Every structure is written in C-alpha cells, then in structure tokens.
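Incident review: delayed structure delivery

Summary: a single-chain prediction request sat in the queue longer than the usual turnaround. Root cause was a stuck worker, restarted by the on-call engineer. No data loss occurred. The affected request and its eventual output are reproduced below so the record is complete for anyone auditing the incident later.

Affected input:
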Amino acid sequence: MTKPLDVIAIGNALVDVLTHAQDDFLIERKIEKGSMSLIDADQAENLYSQMGPAVEVSGGSAANTIAGIASLGGSAGFIGKVADDQLGAIFKHDITALGVEFTTKPMREGKPTGRCLVFVTPDAQRTMQTFLGSAGEVSPADIDAEQIKRAKITYFEGYLWDQPPAKEAYVKAAKIAHEAGKKTSLTLSDSFCVHRHRAEFLELVDGHVDVLFANEQEIIALYETDNFDAAVQAVRGKCDIAVITRSEKGAVIVTPDETVEVAAHPVDKVEDTTGAGDLFAAGFLYGLTQGKPLAECGKIAAICAAEIISHVGARPEADLQALVAKHL
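Output delivered after worker restart:
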C-alpha cells in the first residue's frame, strides 16, 4: 500500500466487553471507579464470569480514534498486536471493514488477543479492567518506516506506555515522523496512567509530541497542580497544540500564542462516556489534517464526542461525515 495517510495510530488492539454495573459491584471488588487497571488472564476470566449481560465490540483507545477518522472520511492506518485467534480475527475484520490500513502481523504463539472489561455505572462513567494479552507486545519491529512517512500525523496512546517495547516503538516512530517533516500526537489516556509515567510523559511532551490530548484531570496530574488554569499555562509552548477536554464544559485548545474555547455539542442523554476522548481526538485530528482552523477542528471533535456518549460502546454508530455536515 502506498496511499498517503492522514493519521496512523499505534495502540492497544483490544476487544471491549461492555456491561452495566452498579457502584456496589465495583466497591465490593475494590475496583477504583473511573480508572483503567491492568489485570492478568486469571483475573480477567474470574471477573468476566461475574459480569452481567455484555456487548462485545472491537476497541482500544487509539483504534477507536482511527475508527472515528475513517467514519469522517479520512485515510487512516493502525499498528497494534492481536493473536491468531477468534477475537483477533474479529478485531482485524472490524477495523479493516472501515477502510483502515492494518497490516501488523498477528501473533501465532504466546498470549491471546487482549480484551477490556468495561463497567458502565448509572452516571455513565466507565471503569476498565484490561487484560492486554497480545496487545502489549507491540515492539520496534512492528514499525514500518515507509508507513510512518506516509502519514501526516502519527498518534500514540498513553496506555501502551506501560509496556517497555512499546515505548521503544513510539520513540522510533516519532523520530521517523519528524525526520520526514511529519507530526506526532499523544493522548495521555488516563490520570492513573499519568501518575505511573509522569516524568517520562513530561519528557515526551517537551521533546517528541506536536499535538497533545488530555482531559482536565490528566493535565492537572501531569503538571501536579489542582488548578486548571495553572495547568493550561504550564503546557503552553511545550508542544504546538494542546487539546484539553472538560466534559460538559467543552474543551480548550492551547497554542503558544492563543487559547481557543470549544463548547460541548448538545446531547439528549449521556448513555456511556466510553470513548468520548477517543472520538474527540478523532474529530480534531481529522480537521487538522484537512487544514481546518483550530476552532472548526474543535467543533468537529465535539460533534464526534457527543455521538459516542449517546450510546453504549466506543465506536460510532452514526455516519460521522454526514453528522458533521449536518451540524457544522
């Protein structure tokens, strides 16, 4: 394949297993609400047996973003590891059916395809227990230099930073992208993830990232302040663009020279916040790669995020391209 790509993402290739749960379910199992925690195969099997009726859909943070970009009409690629098993086949089918370039070879031995057990509480908050399986096996060997060079932006999810080989993969990809005159982007993924890797994330943002995505809690955690305005000032100038989401308060786009405020797009009812940040990133990156002004990028992003929180699951159910055309 030699076509140009708007965005290529490196991330966890997971299948999400979503179920509704009460707060008591989490409390009884000492699971911190709103967090993403890594679990092993035995824990995953045990927890799955205790879940209520569930819906299984292909997921993974960066993969959700790429699915959104494809739905918007953008050209996209994904680098992520699955196993040569049933869930791996489902993941590959779902992402390639969207027109996404996905050529990473599956693992024929070792860990099974990863899965994320997602518990959605009545307030639409999502709590994730993730068995990475093969997803955590992304390594520098999976980075195709020519593929990275074809993309305007290489996008990386913070969750994958828990795996040392993936760190090396990202640094390799970032170097290739920058040497080719292209951009890189990082989502901090989760405030708990930020706490685990704060020093390294600070170094990344300052030296390797052009476009940063974070929510309010993540940016505050990164700069160790309880003041949002102070965190905004701290990130200003550390990268070309910092996009900070604030749920119903909308978002703030920060550059060295300006701050652009983005209103949240109205939604009748919030059903599930899973994937809200992923689809906000999709809309923003799509707009950015199409040369749209920052304010318009933010509006596209808000429309995409509103669609995803209106239903259960982190992949778009509506045609985002048509939805944006209707509301923009």
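Verification: The chain has twelve helices and 13 strands.
Action items: add queue-age alerting; document worker restart procedure.
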